[in-house]
Specification:
heterodimer, A: alpha/beta, Peroxisomal Thiolase, Chain A, domain 1, two-stranded antiparallel ribbon, 14 helices, 14 strands, globular, B: mainly alpha, Non-ribosomal Peptide Synthetase Peptidyl Carrier Protein, Chain A
Chain lengths: ~400, ~100
């Protein structure tokens, strides 16, 4: 069986515009959540979020590129550049180009482009929009621009499964490399939904917090949205070894399940089946897991359902493993969230530092796990899981092992 | 005759519960009516639209929201006081 390893990582999120900065924020337990700044924010009831600050598109892309790149595409390309640079791979004029591809997750694609152009035609009454509106807003725009930028000519597509988009995308990339359909895949996810229409839609569900993200804490009162991207290079192990690449971790298992239940309420059983399935796929015993990056949205429903599912899967070992929700720091990036959260798994496996669940104020007997409250912790971890449980009852869990 | 706040709230709840208004009584709870969390959020949205008020309700902590949803009667009373507060009216007829 072909093995799959990670040889590059890149990101931009509310904590930092690169991986080292994000790791530093994880170590410090720093929050990226603050007052939202964009047009018409005063008409929102929810005005906090984990926004990418100091983003200067002109510093990264030329004018022609910007006219084609929605914010979510910009984030994805920026993250991909960091990941590819770290991997040391180059694809152009190389046979590898035909054996390399892209799978990215996003829930909303070019939401800012939709928002700006709806405003222009509906509110401002304009009858003409920019010619690139469609290629900018389409969900596969980020995937396609990564493919074009780096010359990746193998399998390429985008995945959209709400909050599980990135995990489903990375699971697909894992399968593609493991099955031999490609030797290297750029994968992860991107989201940029922090605009008036994006937040207004979420407000309607009444699951957003107005004051902070406190996963697993008894006084949690909802989720806080974030934005950004993370992209990884998934590479076939022998290919990576032959060229002497630095290996960040091995991807050893993936499972996905559907609750076939409710369109918004999570299912304990669906979540448990996904975690157990990822371990089965990895041929690893349950007590090998040292860390779980939780879905941990900070809603009443998710956190107790997820805690119960962890208890179901791990039994007594549930009390020994660590589980944290880094959404408390980088917010919920929706379709990009699993990708940014995989960084916390890489940090745990490679650096022996567990990112904390910050904002933890009061224990909740329904979430009685070691959630690594408020402060990062040093610990050696051999296996880490990353959970994502989406609206629509679609669950995707990845298993990573230290190399 | 103008529809009262009470009539309108009960009509909204009945519609959400797929019941006749005559079968919705003050002492009934949401579970008894078969209204789940998503149904409740929809009913609250309908109330906000009907009376042009803002209902303080967070699905994560319904009991702390300051909007009593323990029974049909409680919801009616809560909406009546919201309408009185937020429109400065007498809680009688909803706005046209």
């Amino acid at each position: 069986m072909r093995r799959v390893v990670i040889t590059g990582a890149g990101t931009v999120n509310a904590l930092a515009h690169d991986v080292p900065g994000t790791f530093a924020a994880f170590r410090e337990g720093r929050s990226g959540i603050g007052p939202l700044e964009f047009r018409d924010v005063e008409r929102l009831a929810v005005r906090i979020g984990a926004q990418v600050r100091g983003w200067d598109a002109e510093a990264h892309f030329n004018r022609q590129e910007i006219s084609l790149y929605d914010r979510f595409t910009q984030f994805a390309l920026h993250a991909a550049r960091e990941a590819v640079a770290q991997s040391g791979l180059s694809f152009r004029n190389d046979r590898l180009a035909y054996r390399a591809g892209v799978v990215l997750g996003t829930a909303a694609g070019g939401m800012n482009t939709w928002d700006e152009n709806y405003r222009s035609v509906f509110e401002e009454g304009k009858n003409r929009v920019h010619p690139f509106v469609v290629p900018k807003l389409m969900n596969n725009a980020a995937t396609s621009h990564i493919s074009m930028t780096f010359g990746l000519m193998g399998p390429a597509f985008s995945v959209s499964t709400a909050c599980a988009s990135s995990n489903h995308a990375m699971g697909m990339a894992f399968h593609i490399v493991r099955a031999g359909a490609a030797d290297a895949m750029l994968t992860g996810g991107s989201e940029a939904m922090l605009c008036f229409g994006g937040i207004k839609a979420w407000e309607g569900l009444r699951v957003m917090s107005k004051d902070g993200c406190r996963p697993f804490s008894a006084n949690r009162n909802g989720m806080v949205q974030g934005e950004g991207a993370a992209v990884f290079v998934f590479e076939e192990f022998e290919h990576a070894r032959a060229r002497g690449a630095e290996i960040l971790a091995e991807v050893v298992g993936f499972a996905m399940t559907a609750d076939a239940g409710d369109i918004v309420m999570p299912s304990r059983q669906g979540a448990a089946r996904a975690m157990a399935g990822a371990l089965r796929d990895a041929h690893l015993p349950r007590d090998s897991v040292g860390y779980i990056n939780a879905h941990g949205t900070g809603t009443a429903a998710n956190d107790k359902t997820e805690s119960a599912a962890v208890a179901d899967v791990f039994g007594q070992h549930a009390d020994r493993l660590m589980i944290s929700s880094t959404k408390s720091m980088h917010g919920h990036l929706i379709g990009g969230t699993g990708a940014v959260e995989l960084l916390a798994c890489l940090m745990a496996l490679r650096e022996g530092v567990i990112a904390p669940t910050i904002g933890y104020e009061e224990p909740d007997p329904e979430c009685a796990l070691d959630v690594v409250p408020n402060e990062a912790r040093e610990a050696q971890v051999e296996v880490a899981l990353s959970n994502a449980f989406a609206f629509g009852g679609l669950n995707a869990v990845l298993a990573l092992r230290r190399v | 005759m103008a529809e009262t706040v009470r009539d309108r709230v009960i009509r909204i709840i009945a519609e959400q519960a797929v019941l006749d208004v005559a079968d919705v009584h003050d002492e009934m709870g949401l579970a008894e009516l078969g209204i789940d969390s998503l149904g409740l959020v929809e009913a609250i949205f309908a109330i906000e639209e009907a009376f042009d008020v803002s209902v303080p309700f967070n699905a994560n902590e319904p009991e702390k929201s300051g909007f009593d949803i323990s029974s049909v009667g409680a919801i009616v009373a809560a909406v009546e006081s919201l309408v009185a507060e937020q429109t400065g009216g007498d809680g009688g007829a909803p706005p046209a």
